[in-house]
Amino acid sequence: MSLPSPAPRFAPPSPQTADRPRLELRNLRKRLGDTAAVNGIDLKVAPGESVVLLGPSGCGKTTTLRMIAGFLQPDGGEIHLDGVVASTAAFALPPEKRQLGMVFQSYAVWPHRTVAENVGYGLEVAGKKKKEIEAGVAEVLDLVQLSALAKRYPAELSGGQQQRVALARALATKPSLLLLDEPLSNLDASLREEMRFELRALQKNIGLTTLYVTHDQDEALVLADRIVVMNKGRIEQVGTPEEVYRTPASRFVGSFIGIANLIEGEVDAVDRGAGKVRIALDGGDRLWSRAPARWLADAAPGSRATVLLRPEDLRLEQPQTPDQERGIEASFLAESFLGNRYELKFRAGTTPLRVQTRRRGTFVDGRARLWVRPGSAWVVA
Amino acid sequence: MSEITASHRLVGDSPATSLPLLRRLSTLQPVRFLVIGGSIAILLALIAYPLALLAGYSFVDAHGNVTFDTFEKAFARRGMWQATVNSGWLVLFVTVGACALGVPLAWIVARTDAPGKALVTLSAGISFVIPTFISVISWIFLAAPNSGYLNRLAVEYLGFSTAPLNIMSFGGLVFIEIVGVYPLVFFAVSAALHNIDASHEQAARVLGASRLRTTLTVTLPLVRPAILSAVILVMLDALSSFGAPAAIGTMANFSVITTKIYDLLKFPPQFNYAAAVAMPILIVTALSLLIQKYAIRTENFRTLTGKASADQITTLGRWRWLAGGFCLLVAFGTAVLPVGALVLLSLLSSFGAPISLDNLVTKHYGLIFDEDFVARASIIHSMLLALATATVCATLGLVLGWVVERFRFFGREVISFLVMIAYGFPSIAYAVGILMGYVDLFYGTLTLILIAYAGKLLPIAFVLVRNGIQQLSTDLEEAARISGAGWLRSIRDVTFPLVRGAVGIAWVLMFSLSLRELSMSAILAQSDTQVMPTVVLQFIEDGAVELAAALAVIIVAVSLTMLGLIRLFTRKKTAVVS
């Protein structure tokens, strides 16, 4: 998609508000029925930033988004938009007064209005003149490449096109913050992948501030400046995609994003200066692993530890400067061919291990020694 | 969905107290508050108030003490016990008869290759549209003891020594009621049979069950909820029926509960006795609704889709023509014959005259439209009332349906409960409540009748519109809100255009139903506020059946035309967004 120059067309930050977070959540809480759907969340979203709320269904991400939009009122905590209180337990600004844009999972494109009427609705409500509305609509339709379909009705559009209409409608009012609730989950796989990159490019090019909810880790990795991993109404970790993938703060984060091999062991030596520990694995072998600073502070020889190893970081050949002594002994279970790689399944003691390699392995008596890419092991707890 | 503004908690030591007053006021939504509050107030006035009065009157004596004396005295009146027994028998016979007719017909139509299936569906629709007090007229023409044309045919040409048919009897009443209500069973069961996914039955067949065994162990249990619901509706209908019992009872000299209530309200009206006599109907109704809610709803968990596949159609072979004959007979006996008789009678110079071209006249219609005759005013009254009722019900249904579907607050369930009570409530008892509640304010005005029509018919409009709103994803409205539209604007721009189809259907249905309403009109209409059905009943009781027929033809024609309009609304696809 050819994008216009990155001129800041959307809500240019004025000097006073430039440093102010577009969105701030303070200890936000909401009960739905008997469960604490959102249980104390703090978050700031800076202007121009793309933040993704990622988590399994029921983790509270959509509830959080709906509170920000003003469709739900929090039971506790505060929501600030551009530094102004929008929601507390006692006060809620109605959705129409929050100056947000929102893209819904179902698109929510109005079937009785044409594409142009859908997109122009926000401007129409704002009391803009007909000329202005037409210009605004043309501008965003151009942005999402739907100019040719302006007079069509949604029923005549494909899912992907309806998705673009929904996006254009949300952008037309130049919102200070764009909320997206799993906008791509109803698209088919290839279109979804394409739209991810388009959305990301659009966000970067027009300097849009977005808060994006998804349960799809790949989507989160592509779209986010920062990922907020949520579980059971709480934030597990906030970080860049690399941080969240390579140095997850918990077992949950490690297993939710990417495939996680988790091996148990006992701390054998601590090197606080290098931020590393050596772990005597339960199945034999000793392994140097990086570890989070806070965990490292309490670590001492004899304490238990779980190490995260990504499948692509496990090898069948010994590296030149291994972090290990003799390799993890494992028995070969199964192999699947996945086109660009093989996925091998092993078992080390009772721990299942998954390994991704470029070529098939050969094993004597079905045994193998697995080597970890140096510097890739990470302690999750 | 539900953004609760919680304005009642604005005072307090929360962070909100530090907000500027203006900003806090901006969260109040006065229009929404007014519209919703106003609708709920109307709902309470229409339904809760008269019902409370009704219960109150039957338990409280003249001195304001709680008592059961009223019941004792009311039921000790002459003939009251017999009327109650009659009502019981009527309900029993009509229910059994309607099922015996409706279930096999539904099976034939939904699952066999019998000819004439479309005819059955059409005639069931027609006999559903024709109210029983109108079919009474047709059957008087056909089967009055001596002068009925079928009887004369039987005696003169078929060699009967006495007239074989007598519509002016309890048996005749049962017959007319069955013909009037069997469509309920027929439509419910055939819809259920249509909706059973073929795979349920195929699964049983694959496991080795024969066709009969599959029908008994899979198909029947699947349609049982539909049959039970229909049975309850039929029972309530028979119990609260007024038109045919009034017309036939007068001539055959018997009473049922509803006609007794009507008698009690004739001058001088005895409200407390009427209320007490209505109580058994109320109790049975409440029990039935509870049974329906708990026994049937729990069973009704299956969401069935699809249409009958070729596999589900039973080939009847030689029986095919027998089934076809049965279909033809039903269509002829329940639709063709009564409608034909009605039209013929309205044109015949006088009841009893030989049927020949010379004897066909239009003088009855002339009289109906005569300016100095009561019928003309009643037509105008009926039309005005139908317009007003349809508009009030469609509007209220839209607002209340929205409130119940979209607005979470304490008591939203109370709204649907209240509305559904009015649905199950027998018209005649409801009219008594309205009379007690509003007689001082609106005595002898059309407004009094409008209140009764609107309250009684609201449930149907409510259910129709609510279903329409249910099918609309809340996202559609929320998208409007987030685009900057306020509540009222989002309803106007998004919700209303998308449920317009459902609202239109509700409006048309309300119009047709108000046009034919008799039980409440009979109690509430005064000499200046007669409506078409009450005039028809008066004509029947006076023996002026030709005039009754002419006016009835007008009612049926307008009703059918209006219902034809529904096709217009349904053809324009109402947008359904999942």
From TrEMBL, chain A:
InterPro entries in the record: AAA+_ATPase, ABC_SmlMolc_Importer, ABC_transporter-like_ATP-bd, ABC_transporter-like_CS, Mo/tungstate-bd_C_term_dom, P-loop_NTPase
Keywords: ATP-binding, Nucleotide-binding, Transport
Molecular function GO labels: ATP binding
Protein's UniProt keywords contain Transport: yes
Keyword Nuclease: no
Residue span(s) of domain ABC transporter: 23-257
Domain of life: Bacteria
Pfam family, one: ABC_tran
Family: Belongs to the ABC transporter superfamily.
Cited PANTHER family: SPERMIDINE/PUTRESCINE IMPORT ATP-BINDING PROTEIN POTA, SPERMIDINE_PUTRESCINE IMPORT ATP-BINDING PROTEIN POTA
UniProt protein name: ABC transporter ATP-binding protein
Organism, as annotated: Ancylobacter oerskovii
From TrEMBL, chain B:
Keywords noted in UniProt: Cell inner membrane, Cell membrane, Membrane, Transmembrane, Transmembrane helix, Transport
Compartments in which it is found: Cell inner membrane; Cell membrane
Membrane-traversing stretches: 33-60, 89-110, 122-142, 167-193, 271-291, 321-348, 379-403, 415-435, 441-465, 498-515, 547-569
Pfam families for this protein: BPD_transp_1
InterPro entries: MetI-like (IPR000515), MetI-like_sf (IPR035906)
Entry-linked CDD domains: TM_PBP2
Entry membrane topology: Multi-pass membrane protein
Keyword Cytoplasm tagged: no
Primary subcellular site in the record, as a coarse category: membrane
Residue span, ABC transmembrane type-1 domain: 84-292, 379-566
Lineage top rank: taxon: Bacteria
Keyword ATP-binding: no
Homology family: Belongs to the binding-protein-dependent transport system permease family.
Protein name according to UniProt: ABC transporter permease
Organism: Ancylobacter oerskovii
